[in-house]
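Notes for week 9. Today we move from apo structures to complexes. The key idea is that a small molecule is not decoration. When we ask for a structure prediction with zinc ion present, the ligand SMILES becomes part of the input, just like the chain. The input block below holds both the sequence and the ligand string. Read it once before you look at the output, and try to guess where the molecule might sit.
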Amino acid sequence: MSDLPEAFQVEYPHARKTHCCYECARQILPGCKHQKYSGIWDGEPARFRTCILCATIRDAVNKLLPRGEDPLAFGELGQYLRDCHSDVPHAKEWLALLQDKQLSFEEQGRHVWAVLDLTDPKK
Ligand SMILES: [Zn+2]
């Protein structure tokens, strides 16, 4: 799905049941804050749930895209980082975080905040 939605809504709810992140396929456990993106594409409603860390990486990558280029489609973050290694700052680090299923959210979060040079919001 690469077209922009005709209408959309972004929310950051706490999960009521277990979901699967559309980007990294990790489980979003009950109580976990995550991004819920609901929209209408070609007249059809769709909804994507993304863990907060993938949503953060995707937002960071979208800001780096050339002007006028559509934002990344859902589920294409990993592929984009693989294809555009040299164009995207930190692409290798982002990709490693997406693919390292051994990292806990806590550990992954520390890496994400560090690469973005942000302070962990929980501290
Ligand atoms: Zn994720």
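The chain has a mean pLDDT of 82.
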